[in-house]
Amino acid sequence: MKCALSNKLMSTLFKVSISSVRRAINTVRQALMRSFVPLYLGFESITREQIIKDHTRPLAKTLLDADDDNMILVLDGTYIYIQKSNNFSFQRKSFSLHKSRPLVKPMVVVSTTGHFVAILGPYLSRNNDASILNHMMKCNVDDIKSFVNDKDIFVVDRGFRDSITLLEELGIKAAMPTFMKKGEKQMSDTDANTSRMVTKIRWVVESANARIKNFKYLDRVLPTNQVPFIGDYIRIVCAISNKYLPPLRKATNEDEDINLATQMKQKSREINTLKAYVEENNLQRGTVQWKPIQDKATFPFHN
């Protein structure tokens, strides 16, 4: 998966038949899913206390005003592109109007340090992030409800806006960038700064998705006969990352992390003096009045 070598090339390198390569890959995949992945990925592989103690940045706790017993998770969907299917029904369900190509969407759940907590799905492309999260919570996928407690925090992007009500009903706080209100042309200072603080935490899931795509096989367009195994491949990659790769971001100095978050919160409450000056002097809508000018007025001639 790391080098995305074809079965034909591997059969040449190892001097075995292509069918033997397929059987070997299938056997290794099943063995890893049975004996390796459950140890390093999934809600049963780690406890809430471990995430809070070892995989939560002090910066995130300070920015989100989280208590010591609150768990912070960052969620986002990623894309795995697939070839066009001959099955018309599946082709319609897997075709993404947003990307204009067929794909499936795994839901990635990470901690604020980039530790992969769980991979859910993959789901068909017609499901947006909000509908996937709603399905996860309503159907209790992978027993997620027993892992999450009241007042835990989910850091999400704007694509999860239709899930906010459900999360609030379950007692889960959602940290999401804000939207501009109807009729507004620019965000208020408070909303813009709130969005910046959420982004300061949420970037880690984008880097985690990039870490998945570093395995070149998952960055390719996969054949449709591999669709049933995409979920296994992603889980294997994430388990390997948890086991052998360092965290994407971990506070080397807890005090520095807290000080940075404190400074960000203080600056977010400061008044935007430039904006106030522009509004007071009506400079944002000011019109320019041109006056005729002659060279004599600027450079007078002396006799």
TrEMBL record:
Cofactor(s) required for function per UniProt: a divalent metal cation
Domain DDE Tnp4 as annotated: residue spans: 75-242
The entry's keywords: Metal-binding
GO-annotated molecular function: metal ion binding
Protein name: DDE Tnp4 domain-containing protein
